[in-house]
Amino acid sequence: MNHWDPRAEELLSRARAVERVPLDARARVHSSVMATVALSSAASVSALAPSALAKLPAAFKAASAILPNAVVAGGSGMVAYLAPVTIGVALGLSAVSPSAVVTAPSVTRPTPSAAIGRAPRVSAPTAKLVKELPSGSKESESSDAPDVSAPKAPMSAASLADEADWLERARLVLRQGDAELALRLLDRYRRHYPKGKLFYEATATRAAALCQLGRLDEGRQILARLEETTPGLGNLAQVQRSCALRGQGEP
Amino acid sequence: MSSLWLATVAALPLASLEDVASPPVASSTPLPADFDAIYTRYFDFVWRNLLRFGVQPSAADDAAHDVFLVVHKQLPRFDGKNPRGWLFAIARRVGWHYRRAHARQRTAPIDEDCFSSDPATCPEEHRQRREASDLVNSLLNQLSDDRRAVFVLAELEQLSMPEIAEMLGIPLNTAYSRLRLARRDFSRCLQRHELKQRRNVP
Hints:
The complex is a heterodimer of chains A (251) and B (202).
Chain A: H1 6-18, H2 25-46, H3 55-66, H4 112-118, H5 124-132, H6 157-175, H7 179-192, H8 199-212, H9 216-229, H10 236-248
Chain B: H1 2-11, H2 35-52, H3 60-74, H4 83-104, H5 122-140, H6 145-156, H7 161-168, H8 172-200
Helix pairs in contact in B: 1-4, 2-3, 2-4, 3-4, 4-7, 6-7, 6-8, 7-8
């Protein structure tokens, strides 16, 4: 079986010699797998017990602690970490893909706002609300274009943990009954993370807050949109139940 | 890159990638103790073979992510025998899905990733260094999936034929037969490529 084709063998030999994995790929992928696992664990628990949501930030911090260098803002044009992707279709997980380690201006990173924008049949108030959520922040410049060229800050598992912290704070005050403050916190979250990875989760929490304030129509419109775009969202069913109960209690 | 990944996931849920092993377990299971060991030991192996199975370099991160998510999920049920074969089977399947998704999205820009850590020296050096590897991967794309698996393991991973037969769960003679046919196909593809190159040279 030896020497079946000298030229092919020589080519294969050269290919073997140069094959190597990118230096930071190992850490990058590990970090994203850990974040996905942590996210799915926290989300599945939170569906049962709201208090377990507190595990979410800790889980992300643990994930980033495993690989402190997972935040790779390398010198090779790798600028940002992780587009927010909620996989409703697969595994029931909210998954985080390493794909947002974008390298070239040609990359068009799908943003949550783009996903929402594609959905049909939106009533005007909801459209306005949803439109302003992910990218309409006054602090974000040229929000229509994918920000692959000059990100404000490299995203990472650590920033994901920070995001989760923001969101958890909003949920906490909401559970304590202060929906106004929850909305304000969600506004601040939106300003800090106009294209945040937990956009959908934050939007669902916003809907819960609106329902709690009695703005049921607004809340339901948002939930309807979420159901269209991300039917597998972890806390969606819970918020829907909550809004439905509020609706039944209406005079 | 993201759009490819999204399309892949949307069209081909990971559940479909999992029929290489056992049914899923609860997603809230704690991190298996030896996940990191497997990851550390076999990451390069998985990465290399994803590219050999037609995953674009720009999507390799995502594909590796998908592979290790499946690994993490199925690890509690994995019997520990033949981990390389198990990983190879998952990578092969994930690669197949990515390849198919990429074929559907021909219009999407192909990002020829540069793997050098130094962007200044990257383009020319990268091109030269990876020329052979890229050519091999493109020739591999022209082999049938079964032959490609045997060929990759034999010629690039340089495993023995009994090992390959065991990894792929095929009789030894079948493995030899596939390797013979794969070599023939590879040689022909290479000849065609060289002929084309010569014609293009003025």
